[in-house]
Amino acid sequence: MELKKDLPEIFEEFADARKNSFLTIKELKEKGVPVVGVFCTYLPREIPNAMGAAVVGLCSVSDETIPDAEKDLPRNLCPLIKSSYGFAKTDKCPYFYFSDLVVGETTCDGKKKMYEMLAEFKPVHVIELPNCQNETGIQMYRQELIKFKELLEKKFEVTITEEAIRRQIHIRNQIQKALYRLQYVMANDPAPEYGLNIVNTVYGSGFHMNVEGLADELNAVTDKIEKEYAEGKNIGKRPRILVTGSPSGGAALKVVRAIENNGGVVVCFENCSGMKPLSPVDEENPDVYDALARKYLNIGCSCMSPNPNRMALLEKLIDDFKVDGVVDLVLQACHTYNVETALVRRLVKEKKGIPYTVVETDYSQADVEQLNTRMAAFLELL
Ligand code: BJ8
Fold first, then answer.
1. Which of 123, 167, 197, 291 sits CB 3.0–4.6 Å from 285 for a disulfide?
2. What's the pLDDT score for residue 248?
3. How far is the CA of 25 from the centre of ligand 1 (A)?
4. Which of 38, 73, 80 has most ligand 1 atoms within 8 Å of its beta carbon, as the pocket-test mutant?
5. What is the atom index within ligand 1 of the atom nearest the CA of 80?
6. Phi, psi (5° rounding) for residue 285?
């Protein structure tokens, strides 16, 4: 597949994908396609996709509805939770509005309690996510995924076959492979692109409803970047930064802008809108639920205890992307990622011997100037 458009136009389209798919969701809904809203990377989208549902991400990334949310929720709560609840409560987000079912997982405490309140005005199903990644956890998660499949079958009066799930596993493996390949173009030094364009493309791809053609589309973007890079196009030598921590789409991208506007380049995103969820599901496993449970429960999120997979992935990414410094982005009141900063600092500074800093922020734009000053000072160290 060859792309006719230029890269800046393609990046802009992906960056606007969340907004641009509002209309698509409305049209799908009018055609009778069920819409399932999800919150977390631990949720295998393969299962609702296998019954032909459109799956939409509900984690909200702007501060627009936070004042409404704070009428019910404490102010000292993670902005992602407040924003998501606020959009649901005010019906301002079409994805919430059109969702026939909202699916949450028992990840962090704030989200768990928010789902209870959300259930007062939306149909909500909460999946019990084990907080440990041992064999017991995998078996428990497998059972939860079967329960989730049965709930979908009952609610939407459909049958979800293992064959249909297997087909979706294959499609999503191809998408994840393409996302992996796209992000690895940034392992080149000098970097071919700005990290903001890459993360917007990865994030935006989650809102493409045509899952079947998505891998080809992403591969075409990567081909184009690689071709132009081979012809000599790049962004020049800059300090190479890895961003880790809480999810960092939307308003939190101000941190990435502060890094790139002050002379650095974000070559790698370890978090959920980056490399974290991209290991494949084993297509050879005869038990599809076991295969899904093993892949998804393996994700290195800070709600796992302990959480060795995050540290192992971080170490590999620091090496692969030839990283000069690490920025740990923690959303305010995100206790699990905040506590883990001590472990990440130890890994980055003591084991890898490179500079590290933590940025605690929210979805407001009030700290943009301060972020600019801090990132400029951090980049000077490199
Ligand atoms: S797999 S990162 S999407 S839980 S809501 S933990 S920021 S306090 S979102 Fe997440 Fe799934 Fe993990 Fe990824 Fe902190 Fe806020 Fe909780 Fe959050």
1. 291
2. 82
3. 25
4. 80
5. 15
6. -65, 120
**CA 284 to centroid of ligand 1, rounded, Å:** 30
Q: For residue 359, what pLDDT is reported? A: 97
Determine whether the shortest distance from the Cβ of 111 to ligand 1 is under 6 A: yes
Cα–Cα distance measured from residue 192 to residue 100, given in angstroms and rounded to the nearest whole number? 41
What pLDDT score was predicted for residue 5?
Answer: 85
Question: In 3D, which of 205, 204, 206, 196 has the Cα closest to residue 254?
Answer: 196
- Report if pTM > 0.85: yes
Q: Is the CB of 303 under 6 A from ligand 1?
A: yes
* CB of 329 sitting under 6 A from ligand 1: no
Please name the residue whose Cα sits nearest to atom 4 of ligand 1: 107
Residues linked to residue 60 through DSSP beta bridges, in sequence order: none
Residues of the chain with pLDDT under 50: none
Rounded to whole angstroms, the Cα distance separating 363 from 205 reads: 22
Nearest-angstrom CA–CA distance, 324 and 317: 12
Alpha helices in the chain (DSSP H): 7-15, 17-30, 46-50, 66-69, 79-90, 94-98, 109-118, 135-156, 162-184, 195-205, 211-230, 254-261, 288-297, 308-320, 335-345, 368-380
Residue-level pLDDT at 17? 86
